[in-house]
Amino acid sequence: MKLEVLTKSENKEVQKEIISKIRDLIDFKNLEPGDKLPSERMLSEKFGVSRSNLREAIQRLEFYGLLKSRPQSGTFIADIGPIAMKGMLKDILELETPDFKSLVETRILLELKTCRLAALRRTEEDLEHMKKALDAFSAKVNNGEDAVQEDLLFHLSIAKASGNSSMNTFMLIITPEIITNFEKYHVCDVNRAALGIQEHNDIFEAIKKQDPKLAKEKMKVHFKMLYQYCYNIE
Amino acid sequence: MKLEVLTKSENKEVQKEIISKIRDLIDFKNLEPGDKLPSERMLSEKFGVSRSNLREAIQRLEFYGLLKSRPQSGTFIADIGPIAMKGMLKDILELETPDFKSLVETRILLELKTCRLAALRRTEEDLEHMKKALDAFSAKVNNGEDAVQEDLLFHLSIAKASGNSSMNTFMLIITPEIITNFEKYHVCDVNRAALGIQEHNDIFEAIKKQDPKLAKEKMKVHFKMLYQYCYNIE
DNA sequence: CAAACCAAACTGGTTAACCAATTTAGCGAA
DNA sequence: TTCGCTAAATTGGTTAACCAGTTTGGTTTG
């Protein structure tokens, strides 16, 4: 008999099942902030899953700030009341992987903000960083080469200059997904790229002269085509 | 001789070192999309770290979409060119954990958008979900009890109704951090909570009548105090 | 000579054994 | 009875062994 191997998506489902079982446990035992969960060994046996799978699920819930595990001590409920815990677990379990439209929508939202913040907070070092990325982009485009990577790096340099590491993180998360989709669907063409140089320059200058309103305006212009695309794909 | 145990932050530093070593390897070997990395065993030996630590680092880079690992085959460079790869690795290594101000700033940005989107896209099911959360909040407040959890769940129900799973995910990530800080610094007091009922109601009604502009306006009102707080803590 | 094939080595994933710090329970002295 | 101390059990984390596909190189066969 051949043993069936689990695909990645199936494995993710397994993790969701474990999380829902943890939720049931928390619910049934009325666990409150600071309370200790049973040990990993015990839970893995009780749930009929491997300890490593269980650990992954716990680490996922740690990522969302719902659990805290202390070495040689145990895993504990974080400082979140039972009601919020239950609601958040429900939301996490119902989360679906973002579609392309959601990603683009979120990117636009984030970038219109990061460029404003960058205009307000950019340091001289940030400016240098952005200028470098800008020049690299222009050079590639003027050479007739594909410059998706350089485009991306310029936008990430703005995110960094925003001084908001939370938005910076989110930009880093969604960006790769977006550029692979861009390349797949050929959203950017070569003619656009030439226009892009001017648009990038405008954004850079606005940030340089610390004019947040203008920076946002120029970013909006830059996103005009993307914006239309985003609202036409469905 | 006593063996020094690694704290969590030190462990994170170890992971960063591994990632920087992976970056050096990619750089030195000029690895391009589709190229295979050396095996985990080989790398862990070469870097002088445990395989599990190395695996964690690889999984982190998988999370950011830079690497892809296939079972029984190997770990590969994702569809991201060398320039973007190098730039993103640099950004990831320089990422710092978000401070409270960044979190609040990001939350405000996200929620002003999610409530607009919710007004445009909410289903009847979403409305029910929101109404439930709203009633639970009101009940708690009218009882003179602390209602931070219910407040949180109402806002998350809006994020869900926005139909943008990317923003929904981000809200889930930053929310727990925020509420623990709120409780720590006592941002919310009881008098505010009573006012909060009316404000929540206004937001809900605006979303119900599918008026995105009004929804955003009411959310802004709701955030007024938070907004001031956010820009006064530094 | 080329294509089909087979076995050995290699790979990421999984499981089980191990470790050191922590907690706990029990014993003993005051 | 109470406080202090020690040793054993428990814990999350780590390391090493194992597994089942995949790849690869050489051999065989038509």
TrEMBL record, chains A, B:
Presence of keyword Transferase: no
Organism: Maribacter aquimaris
InterPro entries assigned: GntR_C, TF_FadR/GntR_C, Tscrpt_reg_HTH_GntR, WH-like_DNA-bd_sf, WH_DNA-bd_sf
HTH gntR-type domain boundaries: 12-80
UniProt keyword annotations, A-Z: DNA-binding, Transcription, Transcription regulation
Annotated PROSITE patterns: HTH_GNTR (PS50949)
Protein name: FadR family transcriptional regulator
UniProt superkingdom: Bacteria
